[in-house]
């Protein structure tokens, strides 16, 4: 016998699920760009805007989907989507900083 859930799930994708999926895709792409940069392929940092392009709409969709009457997933999934999208945005900004040679530590100079 199945137990009833707190949130009855709808078939298909909700906005919160799509936002979480965009965040996961952005994090995987960001990790691949970072690893390519660590292996000496500095041209990979030119792709650092892709995770940002995935993270910002993912966060917006998660916020909108979280305020729906029936978001289709539990609250912990929505909070996880918030967290991963914020992490993707922060990580992609660090990748952009490496690409554009920004110095973000006090007194540091970026090597060109």
Task: Characterise this structure.
With 112 residues, this protein is mainly α. The chain has one domain. Helices cover 60% and strands 0% of the residues. The chain contains 3 helices and no strands. The protein has helices at residues 15-38, 49-66, 75-99. α1 packs antiparallel against α2 (49-66), α1 runs parallel beside α3 and α2 packs antiparallel against α3. The longest helix has 25 residues, at 75-99. The model has no long low-confidence stretch (mean pLDDT 86).
Number of helices: 3
For the termini, the CA-CA separation is 64 Å
Elements, N to C (H/E)? HHH
The whole-number mean of residue pLDDT values reads 86
Tally of strands: 0
Please state roughly what percent of the residues sit in beta strands, choosing from under 5%, 5-15%, 15-25%, 25-35%, 35-45% or over 45%: under 5%
Helix content: 55-70%
Major sheet attributes:
none
